[in-house]
Amino acid sequence: MLQILKKFSTNLIVAIPTMMIAGFIYGLFAETTWLKSMIIPFTFLMVYPMMVTLKIKKVFEGGDFKAQVITQFINFGIVPFLAFGAGRFFFEDRPYMALGLFLAGLVPTSGMTISWTGLARGNMSAAIKMTVIGLIFGSLATPFYVQAFMGTNIEMSLAAVFKQILFIVFLPMVAGYATQRFLVNRYGQDDFQKVLAPKFPALSCLGVLGIVFVALALKAKTIASAPEMLLKILVPLVLIYAVNFVLSTVVGKAMLPRGDAIALVYGSVMRNLSIALAIAINAFGAQGSDAALVIAMAYIVQVQSAAWYVKFTPSIFGEHKEQESAPALVPAESTS
Predict the structure, then answer these.
(1) Cα distance between residue 333 and residue 29, in whole Å
(2) What pTM does this model have?
(3) Over the stretch 193-249, which tens digit does the pLDDT of each residue have?
(4) Does any domain span residue 271?
(5) Which of 80, 107, 252, 288 meets the CB 3.0–4.6 Å disulfide criterion with 284?
(6) Domain membership flag for residue 324
(7) Around Cβ 107, how many Cβ atoms within 10 Å?
(8) Residue 265 falls within a domain, yes or no?
(9) Radius of gyration, alpha carbons of the chain
(10) What pLDDT score was predicted for residue 324?
(11) Is residue 101 a part of any domain in this protein?
(12) What angle do CA 126, 39, 166 make, to 5 degrees?
């Protein structure tokens, strides 16, 4: 089983579209209501394996302040404006689709920020902080952004946002640390570091694939109901994600070390589409269906582009070196 997962994790550009197609077909012909209960378990599974090898102390240390500032500047000072401009240009006559594009570009970071950073061998402690900061600040800023740009009042549930942070950051972190200490105590630091720790990241891709399947299954009928609109929606989405990837990559390479730069990319490109989708459905009722369709399509672009970026990360930032991974790995027993 582990060998199969390792093959999946090294071939995500094939595994992810395969799961997208499977989820889409399932969503068209089968009952999908029960899949909503799988979102939290898959999200946990996506993040937890990365936490097992995390050096917890690094999460609460400094050293990545520049990466944090740059990431949030891109998240709130550039991407929402880019999404708003693209919505005005591409959906001038479809205001709720423009709203969907804006929402898809507004709320940053999710559990995938952490898991993709880990899969790309970036600085996970920086990615965790980006996730927490992005979700908190995003929950506070989103109502003001929507009012200022779209002229619409919405309410954001801070309780729901903190619940997300609990399930995608803190709970996996606690469980991962408990697993780490148990394995170190039972097998020793050396065996854990060399034999056991390398096995866990492959488990994360199972959570990623599960989330992809669920996301496409839940929105399959929505996507299929408007096939003529798919291309029109995909064009601005691809444009926004492409600009974001290029911008964060150029800035990261120019201003940050390798690990922080990778965290910057996934901390600024990955958007919290589940929050965006909840806003579209709950705040705008039946009129929000157009916005929800755009956000559902954003899942496809976001996950597939993230998988391709992992594949090309060594070419973009250079090969991963063990000393660069030290912040994300368990320290020697004498320093823990």
Answers:
(1) 53
(2) 0.78
(3) 888 888 887 787 788 888 888 888 888 887 888 777 788 999 999 999 999 999 999
(4) yes
(5) 288
(6) no
(7) 27
(8) yes
(9) 19
(10) 42
(11) yes
(12) 45
Residue 203: predicted pLDDT: 80
**What is the reported pLDDT for 154?**
64
Structural domain count, the chain:
1
- Can you give the CATH number for the domain in which 78 is found? 1.20.1530.20
Buried b (16+ CB within 10 A) or exposed e, 221-236: eebeeeeebeeebeeb
* Three-state DSSP string of 60-127: CCCCCHHHHHHHHHHHHHCHHHHHHHHHHHHCCCCHHHHHHHHHHCCCECCHHHHHHHHHCCCCHHHH
- Average pLDDT on 247-260 reads 96
CB 74 within 8 A of CB 106: no
Beta bridge partners of 108: 271
Q: Name the residue range of residue 167's domain.
A: 2-316
Determine the residue type at 195. Answer: V
Please tell me the predicted confidence (pLDDT) of residue 6: 63
Helix (H, G, I), strand (E, B) or coil at 153: coil
H or E, element range at 318: none
Q: Please count the residues of the chain.
A: 336
Give me the mean pLDDT over the 250-278 stretch.
Answer: 92
Answer positive or negative: Cα dihedral of 17, 138, 98, 284.
Answer: positive
